[in-house]
Specification:
It is a single chain. It contains 10 helices and 19 strands. By secondary structure, it is α+β, with helices and mostly antiparallel strands. The two termini are 37 Å apart. The chain folds into 3 domains: 3-90; 107-284, Rossmann fold, CATH 3.40.50; 305-385. It has a 7-stranded antiparallel sheet with strand order 2-3-4-5-6-1-7, covered by helices on one side. It is globular and about 70 Å long. A hairpin with a 2-residue loop joins strand 18 and strand 19. Helices cover 25% and strands 32% of the residues. The longest helix is centred in the N-terminal third of the chain and has 14 residues, at 69-82. The chain has helices spanning 69-82, 107-112, 131-139, 152-165, 177-180, 211-220, 234-245, 265-272, 305-311, 372-385, and strands spanning 3-6, 16-18, 21-28, 33-38, 43-50, 56-60, 87-90, 121-125, 144-148, 170-173, 189-195, 221-231, 250-256, 278-284, 315-318, 323-332, 336-345, 348-357, 360-364.
């Protein structure tokens, strides 16, 4: 992350504006200060952290980082000049603006726009190098191909390939597929591919395939839609078969060492080594009820900033399938309180801030959607803030 180290620091008066950036206000704790910065495209924090040797580290705050690292670099460069810093080390030299890739979407896209698509959907979970996803996109131009991948280099590489190949029917996202499917309309997906998922033999709770995932897959699948798992792990094969056959209104077909139209380089290597490849294909035979659109979580009351500042202490709440962790408090006199917080389900944690001021309370920097675990956590947060 962009940062610099200085042995000289004169705190500038806020607010101030320079080169299209507005430095709005600052909140502090014993160990650091956060400065709220905005330009026409983003809003984020930079962090000032004193060190024991009289030095200061001034850096980008990673939770609120915008998509363009250039914004952080430019903001830090402006702040260094305004604070009259004597920079001893820096990696904030502004880079070239990163061209936005319109294939990669964020969660807001699925929440706000995804229902406009009338085409059938193919969903691939963990597409890796993208060979299979790109093959499906090229050969099914009448379908929407949604790819989910948490490995960012793979995500960006496949997005670049989509642009080179001129594929306009691909949507990519870095998110947890187990939660992302809650945004999909019921009966909207024709095929779901889960090819060579991480087996997680020692941590089975981290597996993609689970009873919850399978039930949600059956909701989003059309009648006769399929969930297709391909694995080289006998343990994962046994586990998947056991999970699938426990469901009603489904057929389960098992194949061994069958050849697909396209394979990954890893699969090619495993075949050369004589390793067995298993396919488990679940076919859905029911129509699911429609679900409501997932809403954003918002605070419904006015919070007393003074009271929160006086009563705050780090705290962890554990619930049934969710948690809330109030980590640190930063304040600006008695006007603004910023609480660094983590909450949600163990498989999908929200890391963000809660800002409380004269306008009330709000999450920053992201919208928080009302997934089941988030809703439970939000109730605890509201109750705690209003005590």
């Amino acid at each position: 992350m962009p940062n610099f180290i200085t042995d000289k620091f004169i705190k500038p008066s806020l607010p101030f504006s320079d080169e299209g950036y507005n430095f709005l206000w600052e909140v502090s704790s014993e160990n650091s200060s956060y400065v709220m910065v905005e330009n026409a495209n983003a809003k984020f924090f930079i962090v000032i952290k004193p060190k024991k040797d009289g030095l200061y580290v001034i850096k980008a705050e990673k939770i609120s980082r915008p998509s363009q690292v250039l914004f952080l670099q430019q903001a830090l460069e402006i702040y260094a000049k305004k604070a009259q810093c004597n920079v001893l080390f820096s990696n904030i030299k502004p880079s070239k603006p990163k061209r936005e890739n319109f294939v990669i979407k964020n969660l807001d896209f699925f929440a706000e726009n995804f229902l406009i698509y009338k085409k059938d959907i193919y969903l691939e979970v963990g597409f890796g190098s993208g060979r299979h996803l790109l093959y499906q996109a090229k050969n099914n131009s009448d379908k929407i191909i949604v790819g989910v991948e948490i490995h960012k280099p793979s995500l960006e590489q496949v997005a670049k390939q989509c642009e080179i190949l001129g594929l306009e029917n691909v949507i990519l996202i870095d998110y947890d597929s187990r939660i992302l499917m809650e945004f999909f309309p019921s009966n909207s997906v024709e095929r779901i591919f889960v090819h060579f998922p991480v087996p997680w033999d020692k941590k089975p709770h981290r597996r993609v395939i689970s009873s919850y995932f399978t039930k949600e897959a059956l909701r989003v699948l059309q009648d006769n839609g399929t969930l297709e798992v391909r694995t080289d792990s006998e343990l994962y094969f046994d586990y998947t078969v056991e999970t699938f056959v426990s469901e009603s209104s489904v057929d389960v077909k098992i194949l061994k060492n069958s050849d697909l139209e396209i394979s990954s380089k890893y699969e090619d290597r495993w075949k050369r080594l004589g390793k067995n490849i298993y396919d488990i294909v679940l076919t859905n035979h029911k129509i699911s009820e429609k679900i409501d659109k997932i809403a954003k979580l918002e605070f419904t009351f006015y919070s007393n900033v003074d009271k929160i500042i006086k009563n705050f202490s780090p705290k962890l709440f554990l619930g049934d399938g969710f948690f809330v962790h109030f980590e640190t408090l930063h304040v600006k006199s008695n006007e603004v309180a910023v609480i660094k917080t983590a909450f949600g389900a163990n498989e999908r944690v929200e890391h963000l801030f809660i800002i409380i001021d004269e306008k009330g309370a709000r999450y920053f920097p992201n919208n928080v959607y009302a997934f089941s675990a988030n809703k439970s956590a939000h109730k605890i947060i509201e109750k705690w803030l209003n005590e």
